[in-house]
Specification:
35% of the residues lie in helices and 23% in strands. The chain is an alpha/beta fold and 254 residues long. It folds into 2 domains: 4-74; 83-244, Protein-Tyrosine Phosphatase, Chain A (Alpha-Beta Complex), CATH 3.90.190.20. It has a 6-stranded mixed sheet. Helix 3 runs parallel beside helix 5 (136-143). The protein is globular, with a radius of gyration of 20 Å.
Amino acid sequence: VYTYGEADDADLHVSAMTSFGSGVRYTAVLDGESLGEITLSCPGRHLGLNSAGAVLTALRLGVKPEAAMEALATFPGVRRRFERKGVAAGVQVYDEYAYHPTSMTLALQTLREVAGEGRLLVVFQPYRVYRTRDLAHELAAALALADQVIMLEVFAPGEVREPGEGGAALLDVIDLPETAKVFAPNWDDVAGEVVRRVRDGDVVVTMGAPPISLMGDELLSALATGSGLPGQDPVEPDQYYIARHARPDSAGGG
């Protein structure tokens, strides 16, 4: 058994990890010998730790350190893990598979770093009725890291959704102003909601169940053409926005 991480006794010891908008870097020491700085072209501390595991595995299998680090530096990532779909109208669009509160929190914290001074808008499709019901407060705490939430109905193949269960019930317990969250059970309404809520510099992420991965290209098209909801004025940012960026970097929001 080989170990990696930030613990002092790890076989591959990781330190000085820094996540930035376009990636993560850290220093690694293997069996007491420095490997120098390692860079991954995907943001997020959790992905940085994953990459350390990949480095350790590669080195134990005989891969040269230089080759392993070069591969990581040019690794483009995988589908649905911080997958950057593109940019339109100054808005970056990402897709992320996370649907459990822990992974959602890590992903949204990292996307906040990517957004910088911009806002973060989440288009979320819950996955499974039982999970959405049983983890409602944990899911809501993670989603409260966003500035805006657009909630689809829960994706629940083979399940029965009882009254009071599903996307609308989850939306109700998210600690955001009413103007900053909306239930959009109709897929065709989502792009319009996004267009009228975002502005230049914002980040949008489609997150959750498998079907939502198809939404990214539609959002980019809608943003590029400016197609919003007919007869509705754009949603202006409320005063709450200023305070949200001062909140602690945690799911509970302090």
